[in-house]
TrEMBL record:
It comes from Henosepilachna vigintioctopunctata. The keyword Nucleotide-binding does not apply. Its main location: membrane. It is a multi-pass membrane protein. GO terms for cellular component: axon; dendrite; neuronal cell body; plasma membrane. The chain crosses the membrane at residues 20-39, 60-80, 92-117, 155-176, 263-284. This is Gustatory receptor. Keywords: Cell membrane, Membrane, Receptor, Transducer, Transmembrane, Transmembrane helix. Gustatory receptor which mediates acceptance or avoidance behavior, depending on its substrates. It is found in: Cell membrane. Pfam families: 7tm_7.
Length: 399
């Protein structure tokens, strides 16, 4: 796998792909039928002249609505199947499997709808991030520590792992599921592919954000440490450097909080709730399985649920890194001996502390609901509670 990823990296480096548009375009092309966003840069278009790097292609909107219609029809079919199972008195396991698949398709139909409704916010976020990366005001600060090769490696690795899971899940749905029609199987595969693609996009973009933020903070800490030790080897003065960093933190906060959250936050909430519900269903059905033959019908559902559970918390963890970097830098500035600085420089450090405290980037779904690792204990507690209740009444089900 590493050899395959390294070959892709070397190929992209030799072809001159050295900008964010080229990298983001790899994952944008995989979901063009949901969010028709196209990237434009000098590597892909020789006629590119100072226009927006990312924009919506209106001619592709018909494919987005076709996907929504397909998922909605599939949702209606699942509702009818559930009613049929209840009326005919089939096994409880078959009914639960149908309900779980219905939740899966319904949840990710909502994700697709949210992605379409928030497409303008997504384009604004991508363009803002590209402008920040190309801004000469910040570029000369991070130029020595920024390396696209390391970012590319994680891009291709996530893309490769996501593609492998989609292929594996599609194989299980088509060849291992015994009671599904062709249309239902197509809906399940489309839902899985959509969600995995959005997950890969989110993780890759958050990785660029974290990398960019770490580079800026590293230069800040290095400059302050040099100044504390009596040296000043940089061409720009410390007060000018701090002024640039303060301006960057404001722009960075607006890019992440005001633009990224409006797109990513609601998707993460819907995806998280659907995954937790599916996990509870899987554990609930596990207690009903008494024969090995029934296990074959449920194994690919459990695989899908566990992978989506890993995916959503990988996305949450990537978002948490942004806040952790901010907290680490803020802690350093609080402990920094400003008495060794001039009055103007000390004032700049205090303003920087204030800016970091009031402009802390967080992945939020709303003004009061933060999507982060703080939710893990409460979610895990809810899952454990449902499982314990299910196990407690298991003998009654068997009878």
């Amino acid at each position: 796998m590493n050899r395959f990823v390294n070959k892709l990296i070397s190929k992209s480096l030799s072809s001159g792909e050295r900008c964010m548009v080229c990298l983001i375009g790899l994952t944008l092309n995989s979901t063009c039928f949901i969010i028709p966003i196209r990237g434009h840069c000098r590597h892909q278009n020789a006629k590119y002249f100072n226009r927006k790097s990312f924009k919506l292609e209106k001619r592709w909107w018909i494919s987005s609505f076709a996907v929504i219609a397909c998922l909605f029809i599939s949702f209606i079919k699942y509702i009818l199947d559930i009613k049929k199972i209840l009326s005919t008195g089939d096994s409880k396991l078959a009914g639960l499997l149908a309900v779980e698949e219905c939740i899966f398709v319904c949840a990710f139909m909502l994700v697709a709808i949210i992605a379409i409704l928030r497409s303008k916010e997504r384009v604004s976020f991508l363009n803002s991030l590209e402008i920040m990366l190309k801004n000469k005001y910040y570029k000369e600060i991070i130029d020595a520590s920024w390396k696209w090769a390391a970012v590319r490696k994680w891009f291709y690795l996530r893309l490769f792992l996501g593609l492998m899971f989609v292929v594996t899940d599609s194989f299980l749905v088509i060849f291992f599921k015994e009671d599904g029609s062709l249309y239902k199987n197509f809906s399940l595969i489309l839902s899985t592919y959509t969600l995995i693609s959005l997950n890969v996009q989110g993780c890759n973009e958050l990785a660029i954000i974290v990398k960019f933020r770490i580079c800026i903070d590293m230069r800040l800490l290095e400059h302050l440490n040099m100044r504390r030790n009596g040296g000043n080897s940089y061409n720009i003065q410390l007060k000018e450097h701090l002024k640039r960093i303060g301006r960057f933190y404001v722009d960075f906060h607006n890019c992440v909080t005001n633009r990224l959250n409006s797109f990513l936050g609601p998707i993460m909430v819907v995806w998280n709730l659907a995954t937790i519900i599916m996990l509870v269903f899987d554990i609930y059905m596990k207690t009903l399985i008494v024969q090995d033959t029934s296990e074959k019908k449920n194994i690919f559902n459990q695989l899908r649920t566990l992978v989506h559970l890993v995916g959503i918390y990988a996305l949450v963890a990537s978002g948490e890194k942004v806040t952790c970097v901010s907290d680490s830098t803020l802690s350093f500035l609080f402990k920094y001996p400003i008495s060794k600085l001039s009055e103007i420089e000390a004032h700049q450090v205090e303003m920087l502390i204030y800016t970091l405290s009031t402009h802390k980037p967080e992945i939020k779904a709303s003004d009061i609901f933060t999507v982060g690792n703080r939710l893990l204990p409460s979610i895990s507690g809810a899952v454990v509670t449902y499982v314990l209740v299910a196990l407690q009444f298991r003998p009654a089900w068997l009878n």
